[in-house]
Design goal:
15% strand
Length: 396
């Protein structure tokens, strides 16, 4: 039964001239003062959601995006700030791009956030999808096998540090601690100081391709999976759910369909589905321009991606349209009854699914985002009577 509603904000500032006929993504450039409004935008959204019964407000770590699309470089720092501006809602780090960190620095920073906020910060990890970001920080991304191997070793270290009073690690990329003299002895073990108060640490990771290796690695560590988010292929969701259950079973862990998952959707509400699609089309198209270039929409051809760079050709070309996404079930659009019907169907198909994330596309301005989040909370969430905000966790 679905009892929790989340929302993910990747950190886009308000954008001008959006849609297939608007400014090409690679030609967008905004001054620093405008890029920084993504931070105040996140705060406005978190404060609103805090009073409306949402469960978790997810952020995303990204760097160097002068285009204004993903402008929050440190989710843990931002989450601690938002926890001081809100009372109940959890703040999710969705996701710390682990290859851009030293794993122990990431573990330390989260542990501090966990303690300082009384357990209101949710941990998340990811491998990354921007070469400009990951490769600039000195880690591989174009070499996917090298990226995954580094990521898996880093996550192994992070969980050792969280869960063990003393730990060591000897792997391909890290030897922790180094065998150096210290105060008259040779280092053999480390202790993370401080460690999180709330153990085991709740950890989430996005599921894109959903390979058997990736799903089994997540299951091994008890990492939960977020599926969708607006860039994943809509029809792949059911396959991921089944494969997720199978991956746990291979490790001797029995879970029900939908358990330990969150389904993510972009949404837009209006008095009718047709009106909603008309209003949201330009935002859907801007989102497609951004994620299509990154090869996160697998159905797009190289020719379609090339066409999306040209605002004179794109509006009339055969490109993905919001009508197709709504029909396929990957984009929730319409009035409250339309959205409730869709989410109720999820409950019936996936009985162990307990949360859904509803987010706004890249380019949705702050005023519209706040109006949409408020409308969803007041018109849709009451149909799921057990949905409620998380209880605050107090630390003595």
């Amino acid at each position: 039964m679905i009892t929790k509603f989340d929302s993910l904000f990747a950190g886009h500032a308000d954008l001008d001239n959006v849609g297939y006929g608007g400014t090409p993504i690679n030609e967008r450039r905004y001054p620093n003062a405008h890029l920084a409004t993504a931070l105040s935008k996140a705060e406005a959204m978190a404060r609103l959601m805090d009073g409306l019964g949402y469960n978790c407000f997810w952020l995303a770590e990204h760097h160097f995006q002068s285009e204004g699309t993903e402008c929050i470089p440190n989710t843990i720092l931002m989450a601690v700030h938002l926890a001081q501006r809100t009372k109940n809602i959890k703040i999710g780090c969705g996701f710390n791009i682990t290859p851009m960190w030293h794993p122990l620095r990431l573990a330390e920073d989260f542990a501090m956030a966990d303690i300082l906020t009384g357990g209101r910060i949710v941990f998340g990890v990811g491998r990354g999808y921007h070469t400009r970001e990951v490769e600039t920080f000195g880690s591989p991304l174009r070499d996917q096998e090298a990226n995954r191997a580094l990521f898996e070793e880093q996550v192994d270290i992070i969980f050792k540090a969280f869960n063990s009073e003393r730990f060591s690690h000897n792997g391909k990329h890290y030897t922790l601690p180094p065998a150096v003299p210290y105060r008259g002895y040779t280092l053999k073990e480390l202790t993370l100081v401080p460690r999180p108060f709330n153990l085991p640490v709740e950890c989430w990771q996005p599921i894109q391709g959903g390979s058997a290796r990736a799903l089994e690695f997540m299951a091994k560590h008890g990492i939960r999976g977020m599926v969708g988010g607006g860039s994943a292929d809509g029809g792949a969701m059911h396959r991921v759910v089944v494969d997720w259950q199978t991956a746990h079973a291979r490790l001797g862990k029995h879970i029900e369909l939908g358990e330990r998952l969150c389904f993510g959707y972009h949404f837009y509400m209006a008095e009718s589905r047709e009106r909603g699609m008309k209003e949201a089309a330009k935002y859907y198209e801007e989102n497609m321009k951004m994620f299509g270039e990154l090869r996160l929409v697998r159905a797009l051809t190289d020719e379609q991606i090339e066409i999306m760079r040209d605002p004179t050709r794109a509006p009339s070309a055969r490109l993905p349209r919001i009508e197709d996404a709504v029909k396929a079930g990957g984009f929730l659009c319409g009035n409250a009854d339309d959205l409730i019907e869709h989410i109720k169907a999820l409950e019936e198909k996936y009985p162990a699914l307990d949360r859904v994330s509803v987010s706004l596309s890249v380019g949705v301005p702050q005023a519209v985002a706040l109006e949409q989040l408020e409308r969803f909370a007041k018109e849709v969430m009451p149909a799921f009577k057990r949905a409620k905000a998380p209880e605050p966790v107090l630390v003595n």
